Amino acid sequence: MELHKPDHLISLASSAVLVSVDVNVWSATKQDRIISNEVTASKNADKSAGRYVKNLLADHPRHKAIVNYRQTIYNWVKRRTYRWNNSQDLLPSVDMPKFKQEYHGHQAAFNTLLGDFILAYDSIVSDMAFKQGDMFDRNDYPAKEQLVSKFGVQLFVSEVPMSDFRCGIASDIAEDLFATYSQQAQEIVSHVMVEQQSRFIEVMKSISHCCGVDDIGIDDNTGETKTKKRKIYDTTILKAKEMCDTFKGFNLSGDPELEQARASLEKALSGVTAEDIRESDAVRHAVKEDIDDILGKFSSFKCV
Is 164 left (phi over 0), alpha (psi -120 to 50) or beta? Predict the structure, then answer.
């Protein structure tokens, strides 16, 4: 009995890769059993009723900057990819060059923050001797050589699995496996498609909103309503154009409405920059009108 792969999984394997970005940061915390015992004893509690964890660097800005940048990297990966499982994310193959370029930029920024922290480390530890008071223990702080190994950013890339299940098993088991396999793959594809539409709608609504104006009151002299143009950012237009490029080669179900909307948005933004929209009322009006037309025309987008 041959268990074949569903067609949509084959398209996933040929049009995307799996990526994960691991960011390691020294937590700079340590449980102190002596203090924990002192606290529980003072409260007439069992030793196992609580524990005291020392913040070894007392939220020093240089260390905190690295911790915060770890979250920046995780947020970037989430924006750039689609969820695959608990440890890997799905990245369209067409986005791989841009993704790697941005990854190297984040890696360099992380290493810069790390270098600043390592350079000041000895001074920071000396300062902690005063801030930690009687809790300070120099043995809690690794040597610089050991410390560096506790930080790092690493990118892992792998292919989407294409296992061809060929087993001499009973037909009922094979059918059950196939049904489960097919359902799981379809759920992933459906999730990606919904997420694509959601991101596409979000960026179009953002541009449409930014191309509008706000009423700021009545002109005392003319009696006319005064308006103020909303801000339009370069990053928003760039994001929309990047989506057009990505979805052109990454439409897993071949959804014709998604492709028509993508092509329409690509046409609406062709040769248009954020500066053009800021400087020209005609361009601003035309872009808003085109995008509002896209949002109102395609039925499948209305229910996302």
Answer: beta
Which tokens in the block code for residue 235? 């990053």
What values do phi and psi take at 73, rounded to 5? -65, -45
What are the angstrom distances between the C-alpha of 154 and each of 20, 88, 115, 215?
A: 8, 13, 17, 49
**Which is nearest to 17 in space by CA: 131, 127, 159?**
159
How does pLDDT run across 224-251, given as a tens digit for each residue?
A: 777 788 999 999 999 999 999 988 888 8
Query: What DSSP string runs through the chain?
Result: -B-PPPHHHHHHHHHEEEEEEEEE----EEE-HHHHHHHHHHTT--GGG---EEETTTT-HHHHHHHHHHHHHHHHHHHHSEE-SSS-EEEEGGGHHHHHHHHHHHHHHHHHHHHHHHHHHHHHHHHHHHHSGGG--GGGS--HHHHHTT-EEEEEEEEPP----B----HHHHHHHHHHHHHHHHHHHHHHHHHHHHHHHHHHHHHHHHTSEEEEEE-TTT-PEEEEEPP--HHHHHHHHHHHHHHHH--TT--HHHHHHHHHHHHHTTT--HHHHHH-HHHHHHHHHHHHHHHHH-HHHHT-
Nearest to 16 by CA among 86, 102, 87, 94: 94
pTM: 0.67
Question: Which tokens belong to 179?
Answer: 């049904």
Report pLDDT digits (tens) over 168-224. Answer: 334 454 456 566 666 776 777 788 888 888 898 999 999 999 998 887 778 777 777
